[in-house]
Amino acid sequence: MAGNNLMTIQVYRKKWHMNIGVVIFGIIFLYLVVTVLLYLTENRVSAYEVREGSILRDNAYTGLILRNEVVVQADADGYVNYFVPESSKVGVKSKVYTLSDQELDLSDTGDEERRLSSEEQSAVLMRIQSFSESFCKEQFGDVYDLKDNVSAVLESQSSQNRQARLEAMTGQEGGGVRVFPAVSDGIIIYSTDGYEAVTADQVTEDMLAKNGYEQKSIKNNTKIKAGSPVYKLIRDDNWSVVIALKKETADELREMDRIRVRLTKNQEIVTAGFSIRDTNDACLGILTFGGSMIHYAKDRFLELELILEDESGLKIPKSAVVDKKFYMISENYITQGGNSKEDGVLVQKESGKPEFQSVDIYDRDEDSGMVYLNTDAFDEDTVLIRPDSSDTCILNKTSSRKGVYNINKGYAVFKQVNILCESDEYYIVESGSVYGLSTYDHIALDGSVIKENDVVF
């Protein structure tokens, strides 16, 4: 019967076929996973680009000026008036001041006397123009220099008028104006402070701190008494400045007899003689100068900076510098082999015959005639033969050199450095060395994670 004709369906297991695309994808995926893991776990080399830089280390101080100066007393009572402007140089017997029984009227008498000459006007305009062209906010102290320069021109013109009027008054009979000359050559100052006779041995910390300091100025038409100070003369261009030092700084500078100094008043950098005097409660530094006294004649205290380090060169981080050992041999063992111009040495083999081996020279010491070779290039106690000689040397003498790993070519090459000075984080090293670094070289930022000839990606 048709209803009994049932169809039977038999299911066969499908035969598995390897898919080569899946296999390749799996291998690539596994490779990528391993590569990423290695990248994340390995010490990576960070690069640092070498640039020029400088390190300046200085200390600021306020110093007490000492010099050869003498206070001159008035010969009589009266009203004093001066011929020459303050801080001028005077010669012996030059007219310095007058004494009169009453105040003198030395005010300007007309516009003609107050007018500057064309030369003086040009001098003022040139100073103002120079200041305007070079002024920057970081050097605001230049404003005071301009003020002093312009004031000097105006004071000189006013002094000439005053001197002319004083000359006219002293020439009048019965005018009661007496003229007094300078007692010696020197720079004239119209103020006193009681420190004129102080020596370096007498300086105390209270003096340096300006405790109780007072300067007394003497103005024109001031009434003075006989025997009171009328002016003082600085009679020598040699002068000194005393500063208070911390013990640590004093110990660092104790062996120095010369030191560079920046004088803050005009930003002048000079070299001064230097010595240290120890007292019961302080260390005093004594700076001695041999010129330019006239610029500081009015000052008793002086702001200055000791320039302890001021070096320029290539600036590199301290983390990049490592110590590496090298074999030391005489330069006489270096030769050139075959038709090449490569430097190398003659290595003695077991057969007794020499064999040329090229080398990289990492540094040369011109004074001792020694060269430095990589210890990785030779076995210890390797015997070298001197060219054109039977002399030999054994590689067993080593010396450490400071340097960094240059990675310009994609692999690490040691380059020695000559350190000039340092800060907390950086060194300043010598530039232009044959075996050293150059500007824009790339070096390993951390020299401890890399070795010679390591490949750097």
Label this structure with key terms:
alpha+beta, single chain, five-stranded antiparallel β-sheet, 457 residues, 6 helices, six-stranded antiparallel β-barrel
Give an account of the 3D structure.
With 457 residues, the protein is of the alpha+beta class. The protein has a domain at 321-449. Helix content is 18%, strand content 38%. It contains 6 helices and 28 strands. The strands form 6 sheets. It has a 6-stranded antiparallel β-barrel with strand order 2-11-14-13-12-15. Strands 20-21-16-24-25 form a 5-stranded antiparallel β-sheet, with no helix packed on it. Strands 17, 18, 19, 22 and 23 form a 5-stranded antiparallel β-sheet that branches. Helix 3 (118-134) packs antiparallel against helix 4. The radius of gyration is 41 Å and the shape is elongated. 19% of the residues are buried. The model is unreliable at 109-113 (pLDDT under 50).
Work out the radius of gyration.
41 Å
Helix count, DSSP H or I runs of 4 or more residues: 6
Structural class: alpha+beta
The tally of beta strands, per DSSP, is 28
How is this fold's topology laid out?
Elements: H1 20-41, E1 47-49, E2 51-73, E3 78-82, E4 89-90, E5 95-100, H2 111-114, H3 118-134, H4 142-170, E6 177-181, E7 186-189, E8 191-192, H5 205-208, E9 216-217, E10 222-224, E11 229-245, H6 247-253, E12 258-263, E13 268-278, E14 283-289, E15 301-317, E16 322-330, E17 335-336, E18 343-348, E19 354-358, E20 361-365, E21 370-374, E22 383-385, E23 392-394, E24 398-406, E25 413-416, E26 419-422, E27 426-429, E28 442-444
Antiparallel strand pairs: 1-28, 2-11, 2-15, 3-5, 3-10, 4-7, 5-6, 7-11, 8-9, 11-14, 12-13, 12-15, 13-14, 15-27, 16-21, 16-24, 17-18, 18-19, 18-22, 20-21, 22-23, 24-25, 26-27
